[in-house]
Amino acid sequence: MEPTFDAWDFAVLITILIMSAMIGIYYRYTGGKQKTIKEYLLADQSMTTFPVAVSLVASFMSSITLLGVSSEGYQYGTMFCIINLAYILCTPIAAYLFLPVFYRMRTMSVYEYLERRFGHATRLAASIAYSVQMILYMGIVLYAPALALEAVTGINKITAILVIGMICTFYSTIGGLKAVLITDVFQSILMFAAVYSVIVVSAVKAGGLGAIWSVAEERNRFYFTDFSLDPRVRHTWWSLLTGGMVTYLSLYGVNQVQVQRLLSVRNLESAQAALWWNLPILSTLSFSTLFSGLAIFHYYKDCDPLLEGRIQSRDQLMPLFAVDTMGQYPGLCGLFVSGIFSASLSSVSSAVSSLSTVTLEDYIKPLYKCITNAPLHETKSTLPSKIMACIYGIVCIAMAFTASSMGGVLQASLTIFGIIGGPLLALFTLGLCTTRANQRGVLLGLLIGLIFSFIVGLGGPKTPIPTLDFNVDGCNNTSTFIAEALKESYYKRFNITSTTELPLTTAIPDPEYNWLYSLSYLWLAVIGFLVTVIIGYISSLLLEAFKWADNKQIYLDNKQIDVDLFIPPLARRLRKYQSEELTKL
Predict the structure, then answer these.
(1) Could you give the CA distance from residue 24 to residue 41 in angstroms, rounded to a whole number?
(2) Can you give the pLDDT at residue 190?
(3) Residue 525's domain spans which residues?
(4) Exposure check for the chain: N or C terminus, fewer CB within 10 A?
(5) How far apart are CA 138 and CA 187, in angstroms?
(6) Position 417 in a domain
(7) Has residue 370 been placed in a domain?
(8) Residue 1: its pLDDT value, please?
(9) What whole-number distance in Å separates Cα of residue 583 and Cα of residue 560?
(10) Residue 43 lies in a domain
(11) What is the pLDDT of residue 556?
(12) Residue 328 CB partners (closer than 8 Å, separation 6+)
């Protein structure tokens, strides 16, 4: 059966996209009409906890989650859900150690912290790395729903990318952060609706959730016990916990997108509450989407669509399932695809907003001051921000056309965040948690950390990743013989004699591949973080010992220290030290 997308589905999809654009128009012409930079970039710091909490989820767990995590459950089983434990462990760290420092500063750009702590060069290097990270990420986020639309409607990916990119650029440019936050709430509802529509429809066709559960157990999809210490194994408890913690902190602790949202609420307590409310919403979405992959597997358990030749990538499974099963309900498939589109819109608009903020605060304002010897007035800052938002939207569209070469959307997105996010987290950690780190030392650490991460993350060739078993016995398609040939080739490649011998807990030693390129993608963030911290700290100590440290070095003995630049426990110790020294005098 060829995928179909009828008039009702198109009507629902178009309506959803128009509503997202209208939210931007509404906030352009209400309130302060986005005339001040504070309203445009920080929503006048008037937002309440709930929309910010939802937006924290929607910003990064978007179409990547819907397509990537469902595909994860379908191909590899449930092991990925262990990453939620990392989220639980890291939420208090982000809420009570990192966030108070940024909230006290109340700056537009999180990278201003690095200038105060180390110097302007550190701020500039970090903001450039962040900009590269987000531009690459936006390409994947736009590509994912375009891939989905092509699978279910036959509309060319180029058309889909242009439509989605233009709409999210439009409302984020004219409506500012407030429009982005409110559309995030609206789009998150659709995102959950898309996931649960898959689960409900599959359960109805399977005769209940128990049938889905039983098939998943029979075909080894329920799997939570991989404790292997081999770093080449794709998902283990150690890689998911350690890699998940570094990735989570790089996103929710020091990332411009999330910190900018947290600064839009009235006070620190509300910002911390938003982080805590984000946790159950995020975990619910993660578990539900992973289970939706099992629900899809039940439907295709006897005829895998990829081996049958119906799709080109398993990231297309979810929309294919929707069009195969929801066509009898007018508009339901359109609602599902709208959920995927909305999820993508929320992430791209968040990235566009944050990138325009970083460009204004870290590039345009310093350059303006250097040229005119006077600061850029706030009343003149809004227009450059809107222009930059529009430009970044165009850049995002351009990047989407390269995303098809990055592999599965889930692994590609986490790889990008690992490569750059790990070293950036290390940079902030050195500033927040140590008093001896200095600018030259941390810049050397950042440079080496990024180089090493890029070599490991993007170098190759990569070792092929084995999946769980798939069946084609129930296929009625004439291309079934091709599927059987593909299966035979796959088993031969991994030296497997039957589907029950598929490797799960052991890596595949292969002399053709460098062991460094065989590491699980989850270790990329950890490696980048550790290399940057170790090199940055040791270099700082050596530079200080040889009197080569720069002028921004913090000296405890002569009281040249701003204790507000450190995490609260360390800040309290430093205040106590300063108080004791003053008492001695």
Answers:
(1) 14
(2) 85
(3) 7-27+58-463+510-554
(4) C
(5) 17
(6) yes
(7) yes
(8) 45
(9) 17
(10) no
(11) 47
(12) none
Q: According to the model, what pLDDT value does residue 547 have?
A: 67
The pLDDT value given to residue 31: 60
Q: Is the dihedral of CA 481, 485, 491, 495 positive or negative?
A: positive
Query: Any bridge partners for residue 560, and if so which?
Result: 555
**Cα–Cα distances in Å, from 493 out to 133, 232, 463, 473, 553?**
34, 17, 11, 21, 55
Q: What is the mean pLDDT, run by run of 10 residues, along the chain of 585 residues?
A: 68 83 75 63 73 81 77 89 93 94 86 91 92 82 74 72 80 72 81 89 90 88 84 89 92 86 86 92 91 92 85 80 82 82 77 84 84 76 80 83 59 72 94 91 94 81 75 69 52 45 44 72 90 95 75 49 87 81 67
Q: Are 57 and 212 in contact (CB under 8 A)?
A: no
Count the domains in the chain. 1
Closest CA to 482 of 309, 346, 287: 309
Task: Identify the residue whose tokens are 């099963």.
Answer: 325
- Is residue 585 helix, strand or coil? coil
- For 222, the 3-state DSSP assignment is coil
Domain membership flag for residue 535: yes
Residue (of 119, 49, 212, 250) closest to 540 by Cα position? 119
Q: Give the helix ranges, DSSP H, for 207-262.
A: 209-218, 237-252, 256-262
Cα dihedral 474, 478, 480, 486, rounded to 10, equals -160
- List phi, psi (to 5°) of 275: -65, -40
3-state secondary structure of 376: coil
pTM of the entire predicted model: 0.86
Q: Please report the pLDDT score of residue 329 as a whole number.
A: 79
Which CATH number covers residue 408?
A: 1.20.1730.10
With CA atoms as reference, report the closest residue to 396 among 165, 100, 569.
165
